[in-house]
Amino acid sequence: MGTEEEVNKVLFDEEAATSLVKELRASFTNGKTRSYDWRVTQLKSILKMINEREQEIVTALRDDLSKPELESTVYEIAMLRNSITLALKEIKHWIKPDKVKTSLTTFPSSGEIVSEPLGVVLIISAWNYPFLLSLDPVVGAIAAGNAIVLKPSEIAPASSSLLAKLVGEYMDSSSIRVVEGAVTETSALLEQKWDKIFYTGNGRIGRIVMAAAAKHLTPVLLELGGKSPVVVDSGINLQVAVRRIIGGKWGCNNGQACISPDYIIITKDYAPNLVNTLKSELEKFYGKNPLESKDLSRIVNSNHFNRLAKYLDEDKVSGKIVYGGERDKTNLKIAPTILLDVPRDSLIMSEEIFGPLLPILTVDKIEDSFDIINSGAKPLAAYLFTNNKKLRQQFVSIVSAGGLVVNDTTLHLAVHTLPFGGVGESGMGAYHGKFSFDAFSHKKAVLYRSFAGDAAIRYPPYTVGKIRLMKVLMTGSIFSIIGALLGWSKV
Ligand code: NAD
């Protein structure tokens, strides 16, 4: 027999899920979550929660991932704080209906788009940024006026249980709940009818989520991953480029980030310069023995450690390591590792790496890299370092990815005016800033008419004259309408 907490966790089955959704739906239906005051109060509560409990969050992230404090405070807490602050500042504008023009066909009339909450939503999040990826969508869902169930990832257990505890303490439990658990609990949740499912994780489970949602015609937002490439042109400030690649790769949870650079493409001639600069900058940042560095997260668990080790141990790949390769299985550490000219049919080039390994592919001409990128699944992000305007234009018009950054990596995530999401295999839908509010709202079309202007031509009997006038009316052109009324129309 486990602790009381463990017993409760086991008891979260389909019946429990049904009753939870029923409870939240009652709360949504009575209008509580729609009120402006409720939304603002809840947003302020999350802010209070992360401000007051920052140290506990940093500790949980250290327990789950050995995440360096700077990364926790900046990429999980400060980013979340910005997101809440923005929502609090903008919510008044976001919830206001958008006035729209109407056409001559409906004259006299006025129209507006009203953002209404979807209802009761499920947010399933991943382990690599367990606070940001859980609470950032929650911010959007609250701002839009929904009741929410959050299911954090069991792969980051300290963060999951802290999230459950803190949300229970700070948030309105009649409308916002956390359910902890793994496949059984998530499956029980997925059996329920939701008004939206927001899922962050890999595409295999994304398919399970989407299939479950289809049964109830529930819309989904899928934040998935992929192999995010970096194209490095010659004639650039290589040191700055390399530092920015390192920042986006090893400086983001040791490569366990959805938009971390997955592989580099560079010309054969320029590759030795890149490798040398990577080596010297990596050594400056993480020392001669990076396995000891406190500034690198560890691999989340032994499954992921073994997955990454398998990539390195594949026959056609093991000889391609030009830097790093050291590992410490006991402490789940893998050093930053660079591989040159790995075959494209290797495991490491077939799957998303999601770890500290960085293969480099070489091409004869840098323009060839776009075909390589487009021959695979559409990535979540793609990066280009160049001073060449034409290459930049080609990159933006040819490469399809969730988002692009020129001359840096990962930073688009921090720009709230840009939507963050994937395309094709890297996901569907987007969030951040107002996009988060929109992701959890229905855009309701509303047309207002008065009793004036009730035109007889709408109604039978349908005469030839009415048909003629109706046809020009539908063109929306005032001149054609006058023409038709005067009998000049050819229709
Ligand atoms: P994970 O293992 O934490 O799984 C994600 C969620 O799916 C968890 O909450 C888990 O409980 C749930 N789950 C697992 N098996 C399930 C099942 N059979 N049925 C229903 N739910 C199930 O995370 P992961 O998938 O290892 O995350 C890494 C992937 O996520 C990578 O591909 C990465 O690129 C992607 N990712 C994307 C983003 C983004 O914002 N686009 C962010 C982070 C990670």
From TrEMBL:
Listed PROSITE patterns: ALDEHYDE_DEHYDR_GLU
Any Pfam family hit: Aldedh
Keyword terms: Membrane, NAD, Oxidoreductase, Transmembrane, Transmembrane helix
InterPro entries: Ald_DH/histidinol_DH, Ald_DH_C, Ald_DH_CS_GLU, Ald_DH_N, Aldehyde_DH_dom, Aldehyde_DH_NAD(P)
Gene3D superfamilies: Aldehyde Dehydrogenase, Chain A, domain 1 (3.40.605.10), Aldehyde Dehydrogenase, Chain A, domain 2 (3.40.309.10)
GO CC annotation: cytoplasm
GO biological process: aldehyde metabolic process; response to abscisic acid; response to water deprivation
GO MF terms, alphabetically ordered: aldehyde dehydrogenase (NAD+) activity
Catalyses which reaction(s): an aldehyde + NAD(+) + H2O = a carboxylate + NADH + 2 H(+)
Active site: 223, 258
Residues annotated as domain Aldehyde dehydrogenase: 12-446
Membrane spanning residue stretches: 469-488
Similarity comment text for this entry: Belongs to the aldehyde dehydrogenase family.
Name listed for the protein in its UniProt record: Aldehyde dehydrogenase
